[in-house]
Amino acid sequence: MERMALHPPQMEASMLQQVVPQQESISRGRTVALQNVESTISELSGIFTHLATMVAHQGELAIRIDDNMDESLANVEGASNALLKYLNRISKQTSLNSQLPGTPGGEVVCRFCI
Which InterPro entries does the UniProt record give (predicted)? Predict the structure, then answer.
Protein backbone atom coordinates (compact mmCIF):
# COMPACT_ATOMS: atom_id res chain seq x y z
CA MET A 1 0.00 0.00 0.00
CA GLU A 2 1.20 3.44 -0.92
CA ARG A 3 1.77 6.01 1.64
CA MET A 4 0.38 9.45 1.05
CA ALA A 5 2.34 12.29 2.48
CA LEU A 6 0.20 14.68 4.35
CA HIS A 7 1.28 18.27 4.63
CA PRO A 8 -0.01 20.53 7.32
CA PRO A 9 -1.85 23.62 6.01
CA GLN A 10 0.93 25.96 7.17
CA MET A 11 3.47 24.06 5.11
CA GLU A 12 1.30 24.28 1.98
CA ALA A 13 0.76 28.01 2.52
CA SER A 14 4.49 28.52 2.95
CA MET A 15 5.20 26.61 -0.26
CA LEU A 16 2.59 28.65 -2.13
CA GLN A 17 4.16 31.87 -0.86
CA GLN A 18 7.48 30.76 -2.34
CA VAL A 19 6.07 29.47 -5.65
CA VAL A 20 3.83 32.44 -6.48
CA PRO A 21 6.64 35.05 -6.53
CA GLN A 22 8.78 32.73 -8.67
CA GLN A 23 5.95 32.31 -11.17
CA GLU A 24 5.36 36.08 -11.22
CA SER A 25 9.07 36.64 -11.84
CA ILE A 26 9.04 34.10 -14.67
CA SER A 27 5.93 35.72 -16.12
CA ARG A 28 7.53 39.19 -15.98
CA GLY A 29 10.66 37.80 -17.65
CA ARG A 30 8.59 36.28 -20.43
CA THR A 31 6.68 39.53 -20.88
CA VAL A 32 9.94 41.49 -21.22
CA ALA A 33 11.30 38.90 -23.67
CA LEU A 34 8.14 39.10 -25.79
CA GLN A 35 8.33 42.90 -25.81
CA ASN A 36 11.96 42.67 -26.97
CA VAL A 37 10.97 40.27 -29.76
CA GLU A 38 8.13 42.58 -30.81
CA SER A 39 10.48 45.57 -30.82
CA THR A 40 13.07 43.67 -32.88
CA ILE A 41 10.43 42.56 -35.40
CA SER A 42 9.20 46.14 -35.72
CA GLU A 43 12.76 47.40 -36.24
CA LEU A 44 13.41 44.72 -38.88
CA SER A 45 10.20 45.70 -40.64
CA GLY A 46 11.46 49.26 -40.88
CA ILE A 47 14.84 48.10 -42.16
CA PHE A 48 13.26 45.92 -44.87
CA THR A 49 10.91 48.73 -45.89
CA HIS A 50 13.90 51.07 -46.24
CA LEU A 51 15.80 48.41 -48.19
CA ALA A 52 12.84 47.90 -50.55
CA THR A 53 12.74 51.66 -51.19
CA MET A 54 16.48 51.72 -51.91
CA VAL A 55 16.19 48.78 -54.32
CA ALA A 56 13.32 50.51 -56.16
CA HIS A 57 15.42 53.70 -56.50
CA GLN A 58 18.38 51.69 -57.75
CA GLY A 59 16.12 50.08 -60.36
CA GLU A 60 14.99 53.49 -61.53
CA LEU A 61 18.61 54.68 -61.74
CA ALA A 62 19.60 51.59 -63.73
CA ILE A 63 16.78 52.26 -66.20
CA ARG A 64 17.83 55.91 -66.56
CA ILE A 65 21.46 54.90 -67.07
CA ASP A 66 20.40 52.40 -69.72
CA ASP A 67 18.30 55.06 -71.47
CA ASN A 68 21.21 57.52 -71.33
CA MET A 69 23.54 54.89 -72.77
CA ASP A 70 21.13 54.26 -75.66
CA GLU A 71 20.87 58.00 -76.31
CA SER A 72 24.66 58.39 -76.16
CA LEU A 73 25.13 55.51 -78.57
CA ALA A 74 22.66 57.11 -81.00
CA ASN A 75 24.53 60.43 -80.70
CA VAL A 76 27.90 58.78 -81.32
CA GLU A 77 26.55 56.91 -84.33
CA GLY A 78 25.05 60.14 -85.70
CA ALA A 79 28.33 61.99 -85.18
CA SER A 80 30.22 59.14 -86.83
CA ASN A 81 27.92 59.26 -89.86
CA ALA A 82 28.27 63.05 -90.07
CA LEU A 83 32.07 62.76 -89.94
CA LEU A 84 32.05 60.08 -92.64
CA LYS A 85 29.88 62.29 -94.88
CA TYR A 86 32.25 65.21 -94.27
CA LEU A 87 35.27 63.02 -95.02
CA ASN A 88 33.66 61.81 -98.23
CA ARG A 89 32.85 65.38 -99.26
CA ILE A 90 36.41 66.50 -98.52
CA SER A 91 37.79 63.51 -100.40
CA LYS A 92 35.61 64.30 -103.41
CA GLN A 93 36.63 67.97 -103.30
CA THR A 94 40.28 67.02 -103.04
CA SER A 95 40.00 64.69 -105.99
CA LEU A 96 38.08 67.35 -107.93
CA ASN A 97 40.67 69.99 -107.03
CA SER A 98 43.48 67.77 -108.15
CA GLN A 99 41.72 67.32 -111.48
CA LEU A 100 41.05 71.05 -111.96
CA PRO A 101 43.60 73.25 -113.63
CA GLY A 102 45.15 75.95 -111.36
CA THR A 103 45.01 74.01 -108.05
CA PRO A 104 47.96 72.52 -106.21
CA GLY A 105 47.07 69.22 -107.84
CA GLY A 106 45.70 70.89 -110.98
CA GLU A 107 45.61 74.45 -112.20
CA VAL A 108 42.36 76.38 -111.37
CA VAL A 109 40.34 76.42 -108.10
CA CYS A 110 36.57 76.25 -108.39
CA ARG A 111 35.07 78.40 -105.64
CA PHE A 112 31.71 76.57 -105.78
CA CYS A 113 33.35 73.18 -105.17
CA ILE A 114 34.79 74.09 -101.80
Answer: SNARE, Syntaxin, Syntaxin/epimorphin_CS, T_SNARE_dom
